[in-house]
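Practice problem: predict the structure.
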Amino acid sequence: MSEENGNQTLKQKTAQGLFWGVLSSGGMQLLNLVIGIFLARLLSPEEYGIVGMLAIFSLIAGNLQESGFGVALINVKNITHNDYNSVFWFNVLSSLFLYGILFFCAPLIAAFFHQPCLTSLSRFVFVGLIFAAVGISPNAVMVRSLKMKEKAIISLSALVVSGTVGVLMAFKGFSYWSLATQQVLYNVVICIGRYSFAHWWPTFKVDFTPVKRMFAFSYKVLITAVLSTISNNVLTVIFGRLYPAHDVGNFTQANKWNTMASSLVTGSVSQITQPVMVQVNDDNERQRRVFGKMLRFTAFLSFPAMFGLSMVAPEFILLAIGDKWIDSISPLQILCMGGAFLPLYSVYQNLLLSLGKSDVYMWLNIAQIAIVITAVLACHSIGFIAMVAAFAAINVLWLFAWQFFASRLIGYRLVTMLRDIMPFMLISLAVMLVTNLATAFITDLRLLLVVRVVMAVVLYGLVMKLTRAKIFEDCIEFIRSRFKK
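Answer:
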C-alpha cells in the first residue's frame, strides 16, 4: 500500500513538473517570439551576425565553468550542504579564471572573425558567465526539489526584464550592444531569482572533497557538453570564418527560431526527466515504463511543433521580421526537420545520466561531433544549404545510436521505440501535408499563417482524439483537473 502511495506521489510530482515545464517553456518561447520579432525588425542581419559569432565561446566557457557538477549534484543520493557549497566555490573560482582568459583572448577572437568591434563586445558578453556560475548550486537545489513552478517564474521574469531592456536599447540605436546586454542581464536576473526561491546560501567553510568525489562523473559530462556545444554551433563558426556577417546573420536567425521551437519541448521535459529517472533506477521494469512515457510525451509535442514551423516558415519570416530576412527561410525549414528529433535526444541523455553512464553519454557525443564536422566540411563545396541539410540529417540518424544503448541498459527495444514515436511523426507529417495542400490557394500571407496554424492544431488534436492516444487523453485529463482546483 505504501509503495502504491509512493508511486502515486512520484506520478503527481512528475505531472506537476511537466505541467510547469510546458507552461514555462511555452511562456518563454512566446516571449522570445515577441522580443525576437521586435529585435529582428530593429536590427540588421549584420548586427545579429556579429553577436552570433560569440555564441560558441560563451557556451563553451559556460560548460567549462560548470564542469558538469550541476548534473552531478542532481545524481547525489544523500546530498548535504557541503556538496552544494563545494560546487559553488569551484564554479565561482573557475568562472573568474575563465573570464580572465577570455578577456585577454578577446583581440584574437576579433581577429579570427575580422571584426574589430568584437574585442570590447566579447569582454562585456562574457561577464554573464560569472553570474551563471554563481547560480548553479541553487538551481540544483530547486531541481532536486522539483520546484518547477518557481523555476518557471524565474525564467519568465528574467526574459521579460532582459527582453524589455534589449528592445529599448535597440530602439535607441545601440545596435548589437542591445543583444549583448539582453544576454548578460538575463543571467543576472536568473541568478537573483534562484537564490530568492532556493533558500540556500553558500558559506565560507570551503571543502573541495565533494568536488573531487564527483569529478569522475562530472568531467565526462563536461567533455560531452563542450562537444555538444561545438556540434550545435559548428555551422556558425564555419560560416563566420568563410562568409560575410550578412550570411552568418541569416543562419543565426534561422537557427534561433529552430532552437526556440525545439527548446519549447526540450525545456518542458528535460528538467524533470533526470530527477524522476533517478528515483526509479532501482526497478528495471518501472524504469522502462517511465522512460517510454517520457519519450511518447516528447514525440507528441515535438513532431507537430517542428514540422508545423517548417510548414509556415515562409509566411512567418516575411510577416514577423520582414523580407530582409528572406534568405533565412530555407535553412529554417531544413533545420526544423532535424530539430524535431532533438528533444528526443534529451530523454535518452537524461536516462544515461540517471544511470551514472556519463562515459557512454560522452562517447556518443564525441562520435556525433566528429561525424557532423566531417559531413559539414565535405558538403562545403556544394554550398550553404547542403551544409545545413547534412547537419539536420545527422541529427535524425544519430538517434538510433542513443537507442542502441537504451536497449542494452534497460531493455527498451528498437521496435518499442518505433512503436512509441512513429505514430506521432507520421500523423504530424500527414497533418502538415493536408494543411499545406488545403490552404495553397490563399494568397494573403496573414490569413494564410492564421488558417494554417489553426487548421493544423485542430486536425492534430482531432486525430489524437479519434485514435484515442493515451498521452493526449492524459494531458486533457490533467488540464481538466487543474481547472477543477
